Amino acid sequence: MTTTQRVPPSTEAPPRRGSVLGLTLLVVLAVGAALASLAIGSRDIPIGEVLGALLYPDGSDISTIVNGLRVPRTALGLLAGAALGLAGALMQGHTRNPLADPGLLGVNAGAAFAVVIGVFAFGVTSLAGYAWFALAGAGLAAAAVFAIGSSRGGPNPVSLVLAGAAVSALLIACTQAVVLTDRATLNQWRFWQVGSVANRGLDVVAQVAPFLVAGAVLAAISSRSLNLLQLGDDVARSLGIRPTRAKVIGIAAVMLLVGATTAACGPISFVGLVVPHLARFLAGVDYRWILVYSTLLGAILVTAGDILGRLMVRPAELQVGIVMALIGGPVFVLLVRRARLVKL
């Protein structure tokens, strides 16, 4: 008589997968964060009056506050968070490094150095002027890192990180050398360096929006190959993917997204580092879902951080760059402690 051996059921949880329901919930949260951003400030405004000011602007005090001050701030917060979250997911995917951050490409350091040169050499004092200098500096720095970190076989993840660290250190040193010799430049640079979405008009949003759209399009193109690149370049090549071309497109998307955001807001830390881990926890390992989740989570996080900055020290405000550093540091420590969240 033969007996059949029963196999115990697996206790391992099935892998998470993104879903339309999850995306819907994130969209609802993003809309809620946007409405809260329009309503909360040094003067709180009821949601009904906010909607009335949006639909029927009449030049009143409430209409001026909502449409003139908070709409540009909220729009820039949503765009900046979405861009940083998407760029972080792309960066971690293309480098296969769970601790990779868009700043590793030298984008922040390049933008800061360009702003300093604009103020010191050309007397730029407006946010609109900062944006163009910062965007150019971010692009040139990222291009230099990409060129240094690439070989005949294309960009190497380890080489990119090392090149980014070296270029960033050089540009930071050059920036410090300039600001320490000129007090006026130091004051202007400190205002931009803190990272904020306040006091930016729709003109700044309009200037950087085309670059953000172009970066998002390249990110969508890059998403098709990211899953295969996680298996290694050789396997991806055998499956019909050209790794060098895919990485060039992905890094170009990161450069556009982070460069434009840094130009408009200044450097905002930890968003591109933390958000992809949260997206991976919710959506699983499929990068087609991770990129979309990261975009929405980034928008929610930055907008919520900006709201929190208005509440922490009322009637004054904390800039969102400071709030993100206060929140992002401890959150990232918790993420790293949970090893299963940082595995790619």
From TrEMBL:
GO terms for biological process: siderophore-iron import into cell. The keyword Transmembrane helix applies. One of its GO terms (molecular function) is transmembrane transporter activity. Signal peptide: none annotated. Keywords: Cell membrane, Membrane, Transmembrane, Transmembrane helix, Transport. InterPro entries: ABC_BtuC-like, ABC_transptr_permease_BtuC. It holds the Pfam family FecCD. The keyword Cytoplasm does not apply. GO terms for cellular component: plasma membrane. The chain crosses the membrane at residues 20-40, 74-91, 103-124, 130-148, 160-181, 201-221, 248-275, 287-308, 320-339. It is a multi-pass membrane protein. This is Iron complex transport system permease protein. Belongs to the binding-protein-dependent transport system permease family. FecCD subfamily. It is found in: Cell membrane. Its main location: membrane. It comes from Naumannella cuiyingiana.
